[in-house]
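Consider the following assembly input.
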Amino acid sequence: MSRTADRPAQEEALSRAVWDVLAQQGLERLTVRAVATAAGCTTGLVMHRFPNRRALLRHARELLHETSRRRVEALEAAAGSPREALRAVLRQGMAIDAESINGSVVWIGFLAAAFADDELIEIHRRNNGLWRQRLERLVRAAAPEWPAARAATVAVALGAMVEGAAAFAAADPAAYPADLQEELLGATLTAYGLAD
Amino acid sequence: MSRTADRPAQEEALSRAVWDVLAQQGLERLTVRAVATAAGCTTGLVMHRFPNRRALLRHARELLHETSRRRVEALEAAAGSPREALRAVLRQGMAIDAESINGSVVWIGFLAAAFADDELIEIHRRNNGLWRQRLERLVRAAAPEWPAARAATVAVALGAMVEGAAAFAAADPAAYPADLQEELLGATLTAYGLAD
DNA sequence: GCGTTACGGTAACATTCGTTACGGAAAGAG
DNA sequence: CTCTTTCCGTAACGAATGTTACCGTAACGC
């Protein structure tokens, strides 16, 4: 063999470049050239790592999910109680600092792109289903006395509220500051009887 | 003068074509030619009605807001009680049939486009602020005994839940059917003590 | 009926897109 | 040191984009 490039590391760097472009320039300017520029390389490397643009987006979407899954599992493991775990996991889905605001913008960009790409929408649905299952499990642990149907409904309601709040905050951070979002989460958990 | 074209009607038809393309092909395929084809004309008419593509998108976005505002006000006027009005207004924000699912897809498309267009994001923020004020007013009417801060928080929480649920349903209608969304709304209103 | 004027379709423009092909260069094998 | 193999930047391709210019045409005033 000759020189060996660290392909996984390059693929991850390119995926992060996809996130950057999506966060700072939007879906319409998410071109192969823009990604290459953001990654500090040329289109040559991009097209040698991925067969085409769609595969690049798919990889970036999968890696985004994987990253957030790892973060969520760490939060869950670090939590002192089921209700603490539920709150922490929901909280990380909101857009409460510059990084998570960027994350929400990227999330919305991928969602919009998915409507024009069957494979992206498939990835979205699978990940959303896993997210829903996770929330359901956390709610069941936080309220063991509830019937299963109640836990399922409340889990989706909580997930939807967090997702919507993150979208609001991503589009207008000044109007939806961090403390407002924290208050939303606290009020909602309290309303459902899931606060500490 | 010579022949007089019904410019407002044409502009509305073109805006509706923008919605159609956004709903059926996604933001990435939202081109001037695609809009013209969907409207049954050529790019010539489009570019004679709007100075450029961005102005076309802006008009379509404004008209979308105006349309939904009228629908919401009709629901509000037809409601028999403040709580009925609140529920009806929130319900119409969800994606419970083919038309409202399309509406949610379009809404997400415009939001994603707004991140790359200062004027679009400005329109979004203004409309979102009006939507927030409306919900706040409806919540105050539905729970007159609440302090203002409580009403404001709950209004945003309700709006975020509806928006998130609509996004979930738009991306995966089979996993988030109409009755599930109705149940989400009912459970959330009940949790806040705002159900009938 | 005729001339004028706005209307909008046609076609072209430069630019940018995704993708492909090529070639120079760097690193390991012998 | 040399040969070989992999890596990736360069440059080009055709297609598609937003936008502009042009021109036939249909309707209205007279």
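Chain A has a mean pLDDT of 96. Ask yourself how this observation constrains the way the partners meet.
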